[in-house]
């Protein structure tokens, strides 16, 4: 008798749960990465709170990083297209 | 004695493991960043100013994490509403 006889092979609820948890974990991993990069760019000497300029820097950092990622994706696709048409 | 696995148990365990992994990542980064900021010339112990700096640094690290989390969430929503 299997220990897992409560679960069917295609347990939809479990699959959905795992998919959602995986997505949440990916979002968290991305936040960790942003925090690591943007901390270096924006934080000077730690004080009693984040001043307005620092908060703006952190917030801009996230958006500009995403913009950079989108830009690189776009241009890279163009580069690949040029290569494949040039090679014919 | 037979032990059948409860689906709810699995779900709870998965959530817990993910939370633990998240906390570990947070702690590892916090330690690296705050050491870099606060301990510039390692001595034979952490002096009072270094300890104070680490304490402030930890709080600012969490402020930063929360702000970035909010900004990212807002950006995701903006991108989704465009689709």
From TrEMBL, chain A:
Pfam families: zf-Tim10_DDP. It is a peripheral membrane protein. The keyword Electron transport does not apply. Belongs to the small Tim family. Heterohexamer. Mitochondrial intermembrane chaperone that participates in the import and insertion of some multi-pass transmembrane proteins into the mitochondrial inner membrane. Also required for the transfer of beta-barrel precursors from the TOM complex to the sorting and assembly machinery (SAM complex) of the outer membrane. Acts as a chaperone-like protein that protects the hydrophobic precursors from aggregation and guide them through the mitochondrial intermembrane space. This is Mitochondrial import inner membrane translocase subunit. It comes from Drosophila virilis (Fruit fly). The lineage of its organism: Eukaryota, Metazoa, Ecdysozoa, Arthropoda, Hexapoda. The gene is Dvir\GJ15242.
UniProtKB/TrEMBL annotation, chain B:
The keyword Ribonucleoprotein does not apply. Residues 13-73 form the Tim10-like domain. Keywords: Chaperone, Disulfide bond, Membrane, Metal-binding, Mitochondrion, Mitochondrion inner membrane, Protein transport, Translocation, Transport, Zinc. InterPro entries: Tim10-like, Tim10-like_dom_sf. Pfam families: zf-Tim10_DDP. GO terms for cellular component: mitochondrial inner membrane; mitochondrial intermembrane space chaperone complex. It is found in: Mitochondrion inner membrane. SUPFAM superfamilies: Tim10-like. GO terms for biological process: protein insertion into mitochondrial inner membrane; protein transport. It is a peripheral membrane protein. One of its GO terms (molecular function) is metal ion binding. Coiled coil: none annotated. Its main location: mitochondrion. Belongs to the small Tim family. The twin CX3C motif contains 4 conserved Cys residues that form 2 disulfide bonds in the mitochondrial intermembrane space. Mitochondrial intermembrane chaperone that participates in the import and insertion of some multi-pass transmembrane proteins into the mitochondrial inner membrane. Also required for the transfer of beta-barrel precursors from the TOM complex to the sorting and assembly machinery (SAM complex) of the outer membrane. Acts as a chaperone-like protein that protects the hydrophobic precursors from aggregation and guide them through the mitochondrial intermembrane space. Heterohexamer. This is Mitochondrial import inner membrane translocase subunit. It comes from Drosophila virilis (Fruit fly). The gene is Dvir\GJ17233.
